[in-house]
Amino acid sequence: MNRLLVVVGARPNFVKVAPVLHALRGSPLEVTLLHTGQHYDHALYGSFLEQLDMPSPDFHLGVGSGTHAEQTAGVMIGCERVLLEHGHEIVLVPGDVNSALGAALAAVKLGVSVIHLESGLRSGDWTMPEEVNRVLTDRLSRLLLCHSQEAISNLAIEGIAGEHVQLVGNTMIDSLLRLHDPERAHEVVAAHGLEPDDYLLVTLHRPATVDDAEQLATTMEVLGELAEHATIVFPVHPRTRKHLSQARLPCDRIRLLDPLGYLDFIALQSLARLVITDSGGVQEETSALGVPCVTYRTTTERPVTVTLGTNELVGLDPVALLAACRRRLAEPSQEARPPIPLWDGAAGERAASAIQAFSASSPSR
User: What is the pTM of this model?
Assistant: First the structure.
């Protein structure tokens, strides 16, 4: 019986692997969960894990914050120790955080097979640490599980193709569809004193959007202008909070909130008139929910959300951001679109089947 170590480092990783873990229950694989602690969130160790129907992690590395090199090195050291002590034959890493690359490097140097969940995403922007992590993790992996056809194409361009590249769909959408409760969403919106379809939800946290004081101040001015049309609800990432403390908010209709739990956040997403974001996952969630989204970035590693979803990429130009949002707000409510292929709530089952088949063909230690 092969032993599978699933490595997570940030909250979105839990959302992505939960459907896979559900589908692997009862399989011959012995599955254990390792949390690197790259992003430590107290909410993970209570209701969040219960909501996702996930077990508590078996291993905790406690890597914490630090430079990219410090985090990656800490994950490598911790994962190497666990792999040597417990003899796992396979490591599964999701996404593109430093934990994914660190765990993949530790595993491959010990001859342990790596499976990458959410392979093939590419933005083409090598200034993004996530892009480096994606490309290198894919290169180290023996089974690459992709969320869309464009990811398959991206890998083929890099010479990665064959039976070890498989299209399984988007496991993050599995969790979204399972946990989104329309009735509860209305309760959450009402609890914040809001009306459905009458507010804009904003999430900004990337260095390109929040680290430059002048850029951030101009962005807040744009939000101030948009607040003349609807209330702005802005759950603030700790990184963004630090920089906002030095900026003056243009009006009291911009409501800054502490970071929200997963269920409350998807509730607010689902009933927003428009979402403004620089996040990758939010582009996917809004497309699945049918909510208009404006992405404040120059590139996206999820172009399927633009071609088949509800997303619009506007760059980092505040004028373009304002124009796109005004145009979207002037449009009638968006008509329902067919779901993106294989974003259907069954991606976890397809991923689990691929993992079991891979394990069956891999020798145990």
Answer: 0.93
Q: Is 186 a catalytic residue?
A: no
pLDDT of residue 251: 66
CATH superfamily for domain 181-330:
Glycogen Phosphorylase B; (3.40.50.2000)
Q: In what order do the strands lie in the sheet with 231-235?
A: 254-257, 231-235, 199-203, 274-277, 293-295, 311-313
**Band of residue 244 on the pLDDT scale cut at 50, 70, 90:** confident
Collapsed DSSP state (helix, strand, coil) of residue 90: strand
Tell me which of 60, 86, 186, 205 is the catalytic residue.
Answer: 205
Domain boundaries, the chain: 3-170+344-360, 181-330
Instruction: Answer yes or no: are the C-beta atoms of 255 and 232 closer than 8 Å.
Output: yes
- The mean pLDDT value of the chain amounts to 92
For 5-39, the pLDDT digits (tens) are 999 998 899 999 999 999 999 999 999 999 998 87
Pick the CATH number of 3-170+344-360 from 3.40.50.20, 3.40.50.2000, 3.30.830.10, 3.40.50.720: 3.40.50.2000
